[in-house]
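Weekly modeling sync, notes
Attendees: S.R. (lead), two postdocs, one rotation student

Agenda item 3: backlog of single-chain predictions. S.R. asked that every request posted to the team notebook include the full sequence so nobody has to chase files. The rotation student volunteered to paste the first one in as an example of the format we agreed on. Action items at the bottom.

Example entry:
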Amino acid sequence: MEIGYVLKKVRERRGMRQADLGPVINYSRETVSAVEAGRRRLPEDAQPVLSRFSPLIALAIAAVHSGETLPLIYLNNIDRHPVVMTAKAVEESLKYLEAVKKLNLINKNTKEELTEEVRELFEKAREECWDDVICKLNWLVETAEVYGFDMHAEYRRIVKKLEARGYIEKETLREEQAAYLIN
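Predicted structure, as returned to the notebook:
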């Protein structure tokens, strides 16, 4: 997910021109244009401001800083109304659950133990899981954008919950990954 592409999409969805966005980040229209076109990196000092401006931009910035490419595949060819996104999220979850129910992994500890049939079921379940995860991330971003949910605060709560459950150790949270989501 390229920051320039995301920046342009968010700006356009908000009905802003490049000249309108420039003052928000204390840069010129030309700088905004260059970032959107991929001719220039997003200036470091503009990143915290833009991460608070849009959850989608925050995810794109976090991806760049963590070296990850995964955080979000922006679904740009669907109706992004929250009601439609919610229905789509439920649909994708049900497809994933159905695919996982078909797996029989009892006493299957290594890839060599998987039959071809189970491997195909596994691949289908994994594909449905990806669809589900991508849809849910888009739902989180869209509902935050439309209804004003604070993804920064949500992220902090989730990290604390995962720590409390013993799923993660505090020092395992990569600061560069979280910096633009939790600041």
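Discussion: group reviewed the output briefly. The chain has nine helices and no strands.
Action items: rotation student to repeat for the remaining queue; S.R. to check formatting next week.
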